[in-house]
UniProtKB/TrEMBL annotation:
Protein's organism: Emticicia aquatica
Record-linked InterPro entries: Ester_Hydrolysis_Enzymes, SGNH_hydro, SGNH_hydro_sf
Upper classification of the organism: Bacteria, Pseudomonadati, Bacteroidota, Cytophagia, Cytophagales
Domain of life: Bacteria
Protein name: SGNH hydrolase-type esterase domain-containing protein
Residue ranges of every copy of the SGNH hydrolase-type esterase domain listed in the record: 49-207
Length: 280
């Protein structure tokens, strides 16, 4: 009995370590690192999708892979990393610039908002190394960082840049998280107009869907961290799809308040595809 219990504990420890690596340390196979940049096909245009986990696609529906399969004329790089904020995008922006891209999509801000919702969330981003222990994210810092990202991309690349409003943060649109995400997204829209960028209305599309299909959420935004852990376990250990997890958690667009199921992810894919086709 004791031996069985010890084996069970070892299994749990190994599973936890594997999941931690999968979520916190993983990078996309087609991330624009040095090795992948050496494989750039000069006969194709280069598209870099820059952002956080909602671009990365390993704790969320992978709309970038979908897009890549539908854009035969583009070589698509996935530069999304889980838990990233505007701070971390600035640290790795040279990876994107080095691709000499023709087109860049930018989807960032969910974690910037989430880090302001509770001191525990701020501490988690610090523990993950996404921000320093001295950093306390806020709206003014977000605006400064976002504007600097755009400045560098415009100055150092020839790319056409598409910026996206934030996906919904939970399905209670009156919750403070969504109120803040509205504020951050309004800034992105204003900056897009000022800098003559392509604006992709992800948030508007998702809010429209929820307003047309009203359904009280089963879980609150305050349960996000628990739901995220359950989602990862259900996806990687139990083999559930993101859509199945969403249904089990009582949501329509998200498995855990922060990430995308196929309905939400396909909205993003189609909006980006329309923007690219419009330019072509």
């Amino acid at each position: 009995m004791l031996l069985t219990f010890l084996f069970f504990l070892l299994f749990l420890a190994a599973a936890y370590a594997w999941l931690y690596q999968k979520v916190s340390k993983h990078i996309p196979e087609n991330y624009p690192n040095i090795q992948n940049r050496q494989q750039i096909d000069a006969s194709k245009k280069t598209l870099v999708c820059f952002g956080d986990s909602n671009t990365h696609g390993n704790v969320s529906y992978n709309w970038v892979n979908d897009l890549s399969s539908e854009l035969a004329d583009y070589q698509v790089f996935n530069a999304g990393i889980n838990s990233d904020l505007t701070y971390t995008l600035l640290r790795r922006i040279n990876d994107i610039i080095a691709c000499n891209p023709d087109f860049i999509t930018l989807l960032i801000g969910t974690n910037d908002v989430n880090s302001t919702m509770h001191i525990k969330m701020e501490k988690r981003y610090q523990q993950l190394g996404r921000i320093s222990k001295e950093t306390s994210p806020n709206f003014e810092e977000f605006k400064k960082n976002y504007a600097e990202i755009i400045h560098q991309l415009k100055q150092k690349t020839k790319a056409k840049i598409a910026v996206m409003s934030l996906p919904v943060m939970g399905e209670d649109l009156a919750h403070e998280a969504n109120i803040r995400a509205d504020k951050y997204s309004n800034f992105i829209k204003e900056l897009a107009e000022k800098e003559q960028l392509i604006y992709v209305p992800v948030r508007e599309k998702q809010k429209e869907f929820l307003l047309k299909n009203p359904k009280p959420p089963k879980h609150t935004f305050e349960e996000t961290y628990k739901l995220l852990n359950l989602s990862v376990i259900r996806y990687y250990i139990l083999g559930n799809s993101w859509d199945e997890i969403s249904r089990k958690h009582g949501f329509q667009l998200t498995p855990d308040n922060l990430h995308q199921n196929s309905i939400a992810g396909i909205m993003i894919r189609d909006l980006v595809k329309d923007a690219i086709n419009m330019l072509n």
